[in-house]
Amino acid sequence: MKLLYINLFLLTLTAIVYADVWKFNVVSILGTAYDVGLKYENKVTKMTSEVYPLYTVTIRSGSTTEYHYVAMDKSGNVVAEEKIKRVYNSNTPNINEVYNRTTKTVNVPSLPRAFNPIYPGGSAKYQDFPRNQIYNLYASCNDDQYDDLKYSPFGEGKTKNENFANCTINLITPNETYQRTGALYLVGYNSRLYKKLSWKFKLDKKIFGRKTIKVRALASDPTLMRDKLASELFRSAGVPTYSGTYIRVMINDDVWGLYNIVDTVGGNWLASVIHGNDDAHVGYNYKIYSSVPNGPFASLRYLGEDPDSYEYSGSYEADEVDKNDTQAPNEFYRLARFTKMFEDWTKTYKNDQSQNAVTALEKFFDLESFLRQLVIESLTFAYDNFWAQLGNSAIYYNPEKNKYQIIPYDFDGTFFGSCDSPYYASDYITDCISWADNTAVDKYFVNNIMRHELIVTRYQQIMNQIIKTVFNVDGVSAFIDAVSNLIREDVSWNFSLIDTLDNSGYENHFTLKNFEDNTNFKMVEYNGSINYNDANYGLKQWVQLRGGYCKNYVESELGSVPAAPVNPVNPVNPEPTPEVAPVQPTTTVAAPPPVVTTKPTTTTTVIVAPKPTTVTSKVTISKKVIPIKSTTTTHRIRNTRKVTIKKVVSRTKYAARPPELNRTF
Ligand SMILES: *[C@@H]1O[C@H](CO)[C@@H](O)[C@H](O)[C@H]1NC(C)=O
Ligand SMILES: *[C@@H]1O[C@H](CO)[C@@H](O)[C@H](O)[C@H]1NC(C)=O
Ligand SMILES: *[C@@H]1O[C@H](CO)[C@@H](O)[C@H](O)[C@H]1NC(C)=O
Ligand SMILES: *[C@@H]1O[C@H](CO)[C@@H](O)[C@H](O)[C@H]1NC(C)=O
Ligand SMILES: *[C@@H]1O[C@H](CO)[C@@H](O)[C@H](O)[C@H]1NC(C)=O
Ligand SMILES: *[C@@H]1O[C@H](CO)[C@@H](O)[C@H](O)[C@H]1NC(C)=O
Predict the structure, then answer these.
(1) Domain boundary at 98, 126, 146, which?
(2) How many Å lie between the centroid of ligand 4 and the Cα of residue 324?
(3) The ligand 5 atom nearest the CA atom of 495
(4) What's the structural domain count of the chain?
(5) Which residues pair with 634 in a beta bridge?
(6) Residue 338 lies in a domain
(7) pTM as predicted
(8) Which residues contact 609 (CB under 8 A, 6 or more apart)?
(9) Residue 513 pLDDT > 60
(10) Quick one: where's region Disordered (predicted)?
């Protein structure tokens, strides 16, 4: 009897001794009307939040390691329980889980590299965002100021509402928490026609080396990854561009959904990514804007020395001003220098097909980076970027190299094809060089460059290298599938949120099936009763078709040239040299190599031949598409300090709209 008691006592003691303190951290994505609790051994413990929406709790461990989270209303009643089975382990206290999202490590590989980078791509303090994480952001903003932005994204006469709201901002990564004060702004012009708005947070103190956190809504994209895939393709080609990751965005009582967090091409970014040093001397940087179809266009024509000609053109903005540039008497001096040098070059070398023309251009312009950019724009059919619409780019005067360069950004108009715009020929999908020739903008810049055969040959060589290394279904699939895996659980959530928001604007009710289809080989047909946008090609389908046609194109021009080897990139090396020689050295090989001399190495590259039938049926389908709702469309414009350009076109039928406007990004 006595022995039994002692045994029981010992058992109890053991239980107490071995009961550990367990800590749980979970991010709520339920909105401010709910709290989160921990359900462990059938007991619910309400969790508390110091840095909303991160909830924590500590408990004493019991006999099981299984637990899950529950949603609770403000009276403490459990209103929902996640189905996910979670298992406590030694890492659990160190990570921030997310309610109703599996805690998993997704390996998102980089795309295969076609070229080594031309520029450093980052610095110790300013690194690319990780590819494999989803961040969370909650902003508590001044109610009136926030409501003004949310309900009135446009001011008088469809000008942008440029007001801001004061906020405190909590940013929670899978293992870190940041709190900042700052201001909330709307971003974009066309993007504010959508109900799911895009935002920018200007922080009083940096996070990840950044003063600005821009979150883009991706409201027209059923895959939520067009921008990301395109930016990774630029990266693969060694062209400097922004990095991004995903982020769940909540502001005040609104849950806005899944966004892309992207960098702005500003001073910090230029110092780190272009010069590889946070403190680098940054030169003048101009953002360009074009308004289709009637202009003005950022044609890069020389407009004289008067800075007003540039400033009031509506096409240029001095985004980064170099106070140390003592040669520059005004903010548009460097742009005037560039356009003047280009004009002079154009005149001098108009009929000169020799290497001299290339050498002269490369004295003041990074031609290699630009040609790689054009190749990616052609392959992805970048609908509103530099080549097609003279937009979404910066003209940077690099004081270190004393050269100008063009830096692309904003790729949400990629992988959609022509969207039935008659500015593209009916055979546009097979056309990899003159695909953008008929778009409305002034093609002065590109056309003068591409009149040189040596440069066109280099363009074809770059295209060949990119198609053989990355722009084929094998090359992009691992990346697309991994990103799908990363965001899949958030996609339906994002989709359903559109109905919980009470502002107005274009809506897309895409589905998880649309997402699966469109990341792979299927289009999303237009359905005007639920969606504003469609998507005529799946991502892999587009890569297969376009990559196949452009492979045919380069092989007809160059013969069959295997891909050049690309050495692994050494991130420590600030100035990696391009593996494939830039324009100059190639000029000794004036004639294209003979057709198919080497067979063994390239036979494994499987690029499925494009099926013409697919294209035909696609065209037939999209011809039937005639949305019925009355729409108001505008295009990208900008408001300078002194002049305001606005273009508002109201039409009752989509079909009757100017063709260039058939897509709103
Ligand atoms: C969890 O997420 C799924 C997918 O978004 C949703 O259908 C389900 O209702 C959510 N469950 C809870 C308990 O919130
Ligand atoms: C917003 O914040 C700025 C400083 O960040 C401050 O000057 C201003 O007074 C604030 N406005 C409001 C309405 O709180
Ligand atoms: C959080 O994770 C990132 C990336 O996985 C890592 O670089 C960082 O050091 C981690 N931070 C902490 C506080 O553990
Ligand atoms: C700009 O010039 C000032 C002195 O004129 C110097 O102290 C500063 O370091 C320079 N800044 C950069 C970024 O070169
Ligand atoms: C995500 O939500 C936005 C609106 O909130 C919507 O436009 C978009 O279609 C959704 N995307 C997906 C893939 O569900
Ligand atoms: C459009 O969407 C509605 C609502 O989901 C659906 O009932 C209808 O069948 C769809 N139409 C087409 C052509 O898919």
Answers:
(1) 98
(2) 6
(3) 14
(4) 2
(5) 648
(6) no
(7) 0.85
(8) 548
(9) yes
(10) 575-596
Return d(Cα 218, Cα 227) in angstroms, integer: 8
**Per-residue pLDDT tens over the stretch 351-397:** 999 999 999 999 999 999 999 999 999 999 999 999 999 999 999 99
Which residues are within 8 A (CB) of 435 and not within 5 positions of it... i.e. 6 or more apart?
Answer: 378, 381, 424, 425, 428
In a domain, 651, yes or no: no
End of a domain among 54, 75, 98?
98
Measured CA to CA, the distance from residue 489 to residue 464 in angstroms comes to: 37
CA of 345 from ligand 3 middle (Å) equals 50
Q: What's the rounded Cα separation, in Å, for the pair 472 and 555?
A: 15
CATH code, 72? 2.60.40.10
Closest ligand (CA of 178): 3
Tokens of 114: 């076609």
Distance 175 CA to ligand 3 centre (A): 6
> Tens digits of per-residue pLDDT, 260-296?
999 999 999 999 999 999 999 999 999 999 988 888 9
- Residue ranges in 70-174 assigned as alpha helix (H): 143-151
Structural domain harbouring 557: 473-632
pLDDT, average across residues 630-659 = 29
Residue 580 has pLDDT above 50, yes or no: no
Q: How far apart are CA 425 and CA 434, in angstroms?
A: 10
How large is the average pLDDT for residues 326-340?
97
Burial class of residue 373, CB neighbours in 10 A (0-12, 13-18, 19+): buried
Nearest CA owner, ligand 2 atom 9? 166
